[in-house]
Amino acid sequence: MIKELVSRNQDYVIIESGEEMAKELFSSGLEVMIGNPELESTLEAANLKQAKAVVLNSTTHKNISIIFSIKNLNKSVKKIAVVEDEEMETYHKLAGADSTISPRQLIGKSLAVQVPAISINDSVEIDNTVELVEIDIEEGSELCNKSIGEIHLLDRYNINIIGAWQNGEFRSPVSPGLILKFKLRLLVAGDKNDLAKLSKRAEATIRRFNKNKVLIVGYGVSGKAACSVLETKNIEVRVIDIRDKEGVNIVGDIREAETFQQAEINDAAAVIITIQDDTIALFATLLARSMNSKTHIIVRANNIDNVKKLYDAGADYVQSLATVSGRMLASHIFEDETSLAAEKQINLVQLPAGKLSGTTLAKSDVRAKTGCTILAVIREGNKITTLDPREFRFRQQDDVIVAGTDASIRKFEEMYIN
Question: pTM of the entire structure?
């Protein structure tokens, strides 16, 4: 969350009641003050009256107490509560929270939609015909081992390549010389029908094994959320957990091969690992990969520093709980942009065309200059998605739908709007 704020040049302060924790945060370079956030005097000292928003990340009863204190001092400030359990959302709303977010539920659902079999059905929808989706490059497909420049997706399918995940990092834009190796993941945008055709070409080897069976390791908040998504997609789900409880199919230690054997990992299309201990998740990833070289391994990282380790252990996709939380909070705080694709690690936003007025895509070369991809133009209420790079000219009142990373969106705003 702090990184999101810093990237937007937004002032912030963390209110921490524990002196030792406050000192630790301060020594790491963060803006922090010591105090009890339930007290109005503390909130006044934090300059609440000038605040754009307050994020509450404590226990439910403390959050509610803080909300009432905030309302006594500043009725207009936006109050956003982070909740561990969606059932607590009602109580926060009754107290006066403007919105609530539940990162663990969201990350569970987000991990579920990474299963290749449902990537198209659960893509981020831009409008009724255009979608933003992730395409896995599979061994033996027509796209595998070819360069971006060779496949000509824009010319052949009218599909834009927004970026690619390489070695666990999202890169945007991508070089025309990038080779589409096995298991590389592209983020693309285009017409639904064209994406369906492209998906068939990119998914060649996925169909070799059972796509209707997924293992979920860990049945906490995130695991249950992932399960709820997959069960609506006609997918067989087997749940593994260390504890015997309702909804769990196999009780066992995931650090032992016998547990995965009992779950029949050898014919699983995907394994979703969503547990609280990253060290155990790392070992489980390594073990799962050794037992099934083809399965799609999707992992939740509780600590962002462990993301690369999990990729190195054999994960195909890793998502950080901290990243999801930060993006969710940013989309609630800032009203100038709507983050439609937070779980995709990029932003999809609608912005004024600004200084692009009178130019073309080819002449402005937005992608090369900012790293952003313009997917559509909104003109007089109509959405235009087929943009000839050399012929289509932007007008003064146009809005553009832009896709890119946080940094590239900032650069676009600086160059063409601010």
Answer: 0.57
